[in-house]
User: What shape does this take?
Amino acid sequence: MKKGMLVLCLFLLTGCWDKIELEEQAFVVVVGLDKGKEGMLDVTFQIANPQVGSTDRSKADKEKAYEIVTLSAPNLSVATQMANVSVTRNLSLSHVKALIVGEELAKDNMFLHISETITKERGLRESVLFLVSKENASSFIRNNKTPFETRPHKFYDLMGQRWKETGFVPLSTYQIYIKNTQHDAGAFLSIYGTAKNRHQQVKKEEDENVAGEVKIRSGSHTQSIGSVVFKNGKAIGKLTGEETRLTLLLQQDSDVHELTTSFTDPIKTEKTIGTRIIIEKKAKIKVNTKKSSPVITATVPVKVDLVSVPSLVNYSTNIKNGDRLKSHIEKELERKTDKVVKKSQEELEVDIFEFYYAARRKFLTMKQYEAYNWMKSYPKATVIIHYEVELYQFGEQVLPTNRQRVRD
Assistant: This one.
C-alpha cells in the first residue's frame, strides 16, 4: 500500500517538470510581420513591462512601458527563439493582442504560406486583432504613440471595440482571416492603419478616406480607417471608410448598430444634413442561382435620426418635405452602394458583402455549390440594392429655429 502511494505521489509531481516562473516570462503584446530580404521574414515583438501602469508603478518609475525587438527569421517560431539573444526572459505569445502586417508583405504571394505557419504557433490565440499597416509593421509599432494608454495592449483592445460604434473599420481578427480564406468564395476585410504623419489633400466627405488621409490635429499620428481586401489570402485592394461602412450594412454577421454621417440637403443643396443611421434589422438578401449569372436582391432597412439641419428646412412636421428627404437619403445610399458593388465586381472581382451565405442555401449539396463556382459567378451577377429609410427622431427641438423671432 505504501509503495502504491509513493508511486502515485511521484506520478502527480511529474506535472510540474516544465513549469516556468512568472518572473522568467516576457509577454509579447504585439507581433509585427514584414517582408525581409532573400525570402526571410522581418518579425517585430513589442514586449510589455507588466509593472508599468499597474499598482506596482512606484517600483518602475524609470522603466519603459515596453521593449521593441526586430529580427529576421524564416518564420515566427524561429524568430521567437532567436529573440532570446537579446531578451533574457522566455518570450510568451499567449498575451498577444494584435498582429500587424506590413502592406508590402500582405500583397505578396508568400503571405498565405506565412499565415498558415502562424496557426501552428503554440500560445498565439486566433482571436488576435488583425491590422494591415500602410508602412512597415515595425515602423507602425515604433511610431504608434498613444497619449491615453500607457500600456500598449490597451490601445488595441479599445480600437477593436470602436469598430461597432463607427463602422470606419471592419471586425478584423486572425481567426476570421483564416475562416474566410478557407471558404474560397468571399473576401476578408482587414483594418487599415498608419502611424506616420502625412499631409495630404483632404477629401470632401469625412469618411471618404483611408488611413493617413484624414486631416486631424492630435499628439498621435496613428489613424485607423478603411479596410484592406484579401482574396485567396492575399491583399488585392482597399476600401475607404465610407465603402467599408456600406459593405458592413449588407453583411449578415456584422454587429455595427449605429453610424453617423451627412447627406446633401435635398431642398437647399448648398447645405448638408447631419444624420445618425440606426441598424436594428439585418439586410434581407435573396439570391437566384437558376442561371449561370446569379441575380442578387438586397433590401436594407434603416432608421435615420436628424442630428442637424443647418438649412432650417422643416423636415419634421412638413410631410411633403419629410417624404422628399426620405427618398433623397434612400437614393443617395443606393447610389453609393452601387458604386461599391461595381468596384467589388470589376476591380476586386470578389464578393465582399458575403452574399455567398445566401447563395449556398440554394444548393442541395456542397458539390453542387462548388460546381457553381461562386468566385467566378459573382463578378457577372446582377445586384439590386434597395434601402428602406424611416425618419425616426428629430432631436429635442422638433421644429427649426425661427430666425425672424430671434431677431425680434
Notes: The chain has a mean pLDDT of 80. The first strand starts at residue 25 and ends at 35. The radius of gyration is 26 Å. Residues 257-408 form a domain with the GMP Synthetase; Chain A, domain 3 fold (CATH 3.30.300.210).
